[in-house]
UniProtKB/TrEMBL annotation:
Organism for this UniProt entry: Regulus satrapa
Chief place of localization: cytoplasm
Ranges annotated as biased composition (Basic and acidic residues): 352-361
Molecular function in Gene Ontology: phosphatidylinositol binding; superoxide-generating NADPH oxidase activator activity
Listed Polar residues bias regions: 331-347
One GO term describing the cellular component: cytoplasm
Protein name: NCF1 factor
Ranges for domain SH3: 156-215, 226-285
Gene: Ncf1
Domain (PX) ranges: 4-125
Signal peptide positions (record): none
Region (Disordered) location: 310-389
GO BP: respiratory burst; superoxide anion generation
Subcellular localization: Cytoplasm
Record's keyword terms, sorted: Cytoplasm, Phosphoprotein, Repeat, SH3 domain
Amino acid sequence: MGDAFIRHIELLGYEKRFFPSQHYVYMFLVKWNDLSEKVVYRRFTEIYEFHKALKEMFPIESGDINIENRIIPHLPAPKWFDGQRSTENRQGTLAEYCHTLVNLPHKISRCLHVVTFFKVRHDDMNPVTDSQIKKPEVFLLPKDSKKNPTDITGPIVLQTYRAIADYEKGSTTEMALHAGDMVDVVEKSENGWWFCQLKNKRGWVPAAYLEPMDGPDESEEQEPNYAGEAYTVQKSYTAVEEDELTLKEGDTIEVIHKLLDGWWVIRKDETTGYYPSMYLQKAGEVNTSAKSELRNRGAPPRRSTIRNVKSIHKQGRKQISQETYRRNSKKYIQSQRKMRGNSQSKANVIIEKNEPEDNKPKAQPAVPPRPSKDLILNRCTESTRRKIL
């Protein structure tokens, strides 16, 4: 039998490992020409280094000389911090990459570089584990996704968060936490209360007490929208912190930043501040019994009020200062007023210019001055001279 080559590569999913530190590896089912099938595990950084070396080996096919000749598929570079969300979202791209790779001309798909990279390693057969650390978590792709690699969206998995401080539950529907507890988030409610599970316990937990394991920032949070979104206050609240607002039921406000911890940045006239999102309702939205019951609960605590907070991330969670909110909001309002003023002045100028033209009578030809008697006698014909004599 000739040299070994790969007939097919199938992405099975990914694995979340905790030793020697938390990281993620992709699982590939590699089918060889001898009809054997092996499962291998590779980090995305390894795959990307393999991809870069492959491009250097085949500069024409990688499009380095002429982009029109490129047949080697594209692969995005790793992020500065690759967490579970990015690992999951990248599966569709990787599945399509492998499908294209094995269908390239034999000089590429069967080259030693490709064959060596997907060969079974010692770590694939005996992955490094530690009995003191919890076992790796496996996330397999749904069977339907494997039929069409371009339509892969990834499995539905629960995100793991860490408690940054102790939390004592205030009702039977809540769950107590100790600093360092790892919880899986089942549901993220925009009111700042998240439904979590910890081993065999489940309950609501304030989002402010949790931080993502994947990185210091909440990439799910929307960017501020200083144009504002109209909301109505459904329950009065008296400010406790300096950067909060006191509002009464029925007030109309504008939401400019929806934060995951349930405290939204809002604007009332030209004043900005934080307000519990659970006490707000979108303008024009019909009130429901579920929302009414929700507003009977207390607002979740804010992260700034939590004592003895200990983050595992060196870089703090991305935050915008209240002064930045106020300044940008004021700047937006002023720019809108200026735009309205400019448009109004332009309209007035057009009206002023048009009105005289409409009302003014059409211009008449000028009447030449009558010639003097001497001029007529000297220059005109005999017939004309007789008329003035």
